[in-house]
Write a structure and sequence with these properties.
The complex is a heterodimer of chains A (67) and B (466). Chain A is mainly α and 67 residues long. Chain A is built from 1 helix and no strands. The two termini of chain A are 29 Å apart. In chain A, 18% of the residues are buried. Chain B is of the alpha/beta class. Chain B has 14 helices and 13 strands. In chain B, the strands form 2 sheets. In chain B, strands 1-3-2-6-8-7-12-13-11-9-10 form an 11-stranded mixed sheet, with helices on both faces. Chain B is globular. Classes of the chains: A mainly alpha (67), B alpha/beta (466). Chains A and B meet through α1 of A and α9, α10 and α11 of B.
Amino acid sequence: MTDGTSAKAPIQWQMPGSWLSPERLEELRPRLEALLADFAHLQEIDAPELEPIPAFRVATAEDADNE
Amino acid sequence: MSELWQLTLTEAAEGIQARKISPVELVEAELARIEALNPILNAYVTIRSDQALRDAQVAENEIASGGYRGPLHGIPISLKDLIYTAGIRTTAGSVVLNDFVPDRDATVTRRLKDAGSILIAKANMLEFAYGEVHPFHGPAGNPWHVEYGTSGSSSGSGASVAGGLDFGSLGSDTGGSIRFPAAYCGIIGLKPTYGLVSRDGVVPLAWTLDHVGPMTRTVRDNALMLQAVAGHDPADSASARVEIPDYQARIGASPSGLTIGVVEPAADDGVTPEVRRETDKAVRALQEAGYATVPVPLPYAVQAGRALMALLYAEASTFHRPWLETRRDEYSQNTLHRLELGTLLPGTIYVQAQRVRRVVIDAYKELFSGVDALASPVGPEASYRLVDTPAEPVVESGDRMRTLTRFTGPFNLTGLPAMTVPCGFADDGLPVGLQLATGAFAEPLLFQIGETLERQIGQFGRPAPD
């Protein structure tokens, strides 16, 4: 093992939350609903031409070549 | 100054270069300090006593034979325990990685070794840098008052530097994890520009928000550590190709013509009167030193906080997702809660957060076209009593987390550099910090202003009194 963080089993994509027990999903529900309601406000900033910033070009986009 | 552990890194380096101080004596002094204080502070999870002494002997021999490498040669330092160290366990403050021993160094570990520094210990931290103490490792105590906390997530690094257990430490910062413990512990903590310091071999929390940076007792010490670790690294996909300047070059330069934007208080920012009092005092000190100041608003403060949280939840849960089914019992309750929640958020939220991020970045570019730097509190409060931390903590609401990271988070979102400089004391005697920020790759300016403030305040730079 060269990297402890890569020593993980592969996962299969499933319906969101289907890997959690119904009881656990119920525990998470209030906080999840609150988070979704809060994140909904992100849509208040919008414009048709607004594209997401590429993930690894943050502060450096105009200041350096960080390819 | 009678004890070696009380020196600044710069003073120790000058002593070593002049061969008035021996690296072996320096390590011995720190090991004695560690033996006395680490059981109280819980700053370190792994201590390299014998190995550090051997490394110090090697450094001493090299220096004696004319092989002096530079200001970090022979200096005892620590690393936050999510930075890979070949042959030395790297727990990330977790149980999941409690037995993980990397077979390679992180790029920053290698660069510090190449500079001749002596790794004396791996520093305690919050579990996977995600806001919670894992009970297995326990909290770090604040050297200014051991019944108080250090914040986090670079909690052990804050405690060790402020306690005089080492001369500097590397931490990591995804929403304020260098700057908060620096503020709570009365030391300097720099979150450099995104891409300036390699993240290779650093256990991630959130790839696009993570930064690695130095924590030290003085601004000059911080510049010395940054000098050793900054620079392009092909192993880090976000690494910037920029010329690395002399980070001490502007220290002592004239403030003439420089304007600092001072963040205007907002009704909902939650800043306590004592933090406001001390940070206002710090701004006055900068004015007296010759800096012009203008009030500025924090651009998109609430939306920046939301975007940060959306990215953090999604990225952290992506990294941890495979372990959440197989090792969930090894996580602390709150970390598990946050990670599971992150798996349930739709991808459209992440993309919208990246759109908002572009708007926030543009707003900060506009802001820094009108001012040279920004000053604000680090967080709304100073340190807290550890006994007030609930044994079974409840998951904080998004609002609470957003309030906490209101001033620090935007610089993770935008990648712009920001630094904590201690500036005063709260009513209970615990330190308060001022955050200074600048445009991309303008760290030399940050060091210039930070050193001015350090000089004007004049109460920090040494370990906390025993």
